Sequence to fold (137 residues):
Amino acid sequence: MKKPLKGIMLSQDLLDQILEYAKGMYPKEIMLLARGDRVGSYLYIDEVLSPPLQHNGSDFASINIFYTPFTPSIIGTIHSHPSGALMPSLQDLLSYMGRIMGIAAYPFEGKHDFAFFDRQGNVIPYYIGNKETAKNS
Ligand SMILES: [Zn+2]
Fold:
């Protein structure tokens, strides 16, 4: 029997990468695809990828990941909010793709500037750890 999902997990390195990328692109918005799979009781994010069509000024809806080299291992999207708002906009929810949506908010300093949301806009808890941590959970 499958254990109930406790949330999302990713490594500290990957979180740092995402935050540094968002910081480097500020005040532009970044858009990434999250690749991963279920490991133990978590959705584990292995890596993030740049979508082939990256529109600067980023109209979220203009990126259709289903027309990109799409694999089932793409579990969702991650983008940044240069405004600092750590919550999805209405547009974000209308153009929701995949199972999870990560948002990095200005000033991109640490874990408290990053969150995941489900299709309804509810926070999905996430944890920092490596794959072994997730496996043994
Ligand atoms: Zn957004």
In short: The helical segments are 12-25, 90-94, 131-135. The longest strand covers residues 31-39. The pocket of zinc ion is lined by residues 79, 81, 88-89, 92, 103 (CB under 6 Å).
